[in-house]
Amino acid sequence: MDTPVAPGSTTSRSVAIICGSTKGKRESNHMTTLISSKMNKGLSDQITNEFHAAHLYLAMSCVLQDMGLKMLSKWFTHHADEERAHGMKILTYIQDVGGTVTLGTIEKPKAKYPSAESILKAALAHELLVTDQINKLMATAISMKDYATQSFLQWFVDEQVEEVAIVSEVLDLVRLAGPKNMLQVESRVGKLLAAEG
Fold it and tell me: Residue 132 CB: number of other CB atoms within 10 A?
């Protein structure tokens, strides 16, 4: 078993956890892989990206909790859970198509922000980054005529449109309210949480 490495470790050797599909192993020693090695690597990298997003949003949630903004904190915790679920969705797909999952190291997230607005700005920037990552994966799937992965990734393309829109909406609320009216933001975010379930 690999020796655990703390998030943000500066060790020169990257640590990866590898797990492959077990489907069909009773009938055969191998399973047909429906995706290319390039697509497999790109999807595996995206699992790590999604887990990093979850780690980042959880850190933001903790900072907001310390600021006394409990609803915003819960909203970021909810989105951290969603990002982890996204990573697991990709992991399951790789295994379903006979690929091999390789999990990379998750970077230590930033833990200090001067304001709620700065947190929302950082969150929006990260959602735009993830959108670019997903679009590049889709472009790879299209160029390789990987129709199964195109179909799978379409859900993520649509999800990113929604994610960017909702983070932008909350950022606008924070900007309009200003530091002295954050209770109004908390009330609105509480309603968003209830709507998101």
Answer: 11
